[in-house]
Design goal:
With 189 residues, the chain is α+β, with helices and mostly antiparallel strands. It is 20% helix and 36% strand. Strand 8 and strand 9 form a beta hairpin.
């Protein structure tokens, strides 16, 4: 009987451990270029009310302001005009943007299978090159597993001056990509 009570308390105290892990809810967000000239806006594919209701303040207020100011996902000039340069019809949890307002990179440092998309390069909102986890990871035993997913990326760096994106995987593969077209410039162990 004592064991049953302990298990019930454990399940209600630590529900994420009991039922597995999951991604955070989708939410609207912005990313400002490091030169402050551009802002990439990602509007969650939810109603404005639901988008904001998933969060507490101050994130809730931030989402309300983003949705009030911007009508579409895409790249804008970072000025008072809110000039849309180009739009996208997809949602990604996180992106990195170049200083030219053209290139966007989406990475998924966590995946559920080796065939999952790991990295996609976009030019003016259009995909130019994608890579799956199994294209970048050579030793899948080195991945860090959670209840339902695994991490494959150790670290990354975006050199916006040279338009180069660097990734090291958890199995110690090193890649350098050209951000304008997503091509692999070099790879090494």
């Amino acid at each position: 009987m004592l064991i049953r009570i302990f298990v019930v308390l454990l399940v209600f105290t630590f529900p994420s451990y009991s039922f597995g892990d999951k991604f955070a809810p989708q939410s609207s967000y912005i990313v400002i270029s490091s030169n402050q000239k551009y802002v990439f806006v990602m509007i969650a594919p939810l109603s404005a009310e639901r988008d904001a209701s998933n969060w507490i303040e101050p994130k809730k207020n931030e989402i309300i302001e983003i949705r009030r100011k911007y009508s579409k996902s895409g790249m804008y000039l970072n000025d008072e005009s809110n000039t849309l340069l180009w739009s996208v019809d997809w949602y990604r949890y996180g992106v990195e943007i170049s200083n030219d307002g053209v290139s966007v990179i989406s990475t998924a440092g966590m995946a559920s299978e080796m065939e999952s998309t790991a990295l996609t390069f976009y030019s003016n909102g259009n995909p130019v090159q994608s890579y799956t986890v199994n294209q970048l990871v050579k030793n899948k035993r080195k991945m860090q597993h959670t209840a339902s997913h695994f991490f494959w990326e150790k670290e990354s760096l975006f050199d916006r001056e040279k338009n180069r994106y660097y990734i090291e995987t958890l199995d110690e593969m090193h890649y350098i990509f050209d951000t304008s077209n997503g091509a692999i410039i070099s790879s090494s162990k």
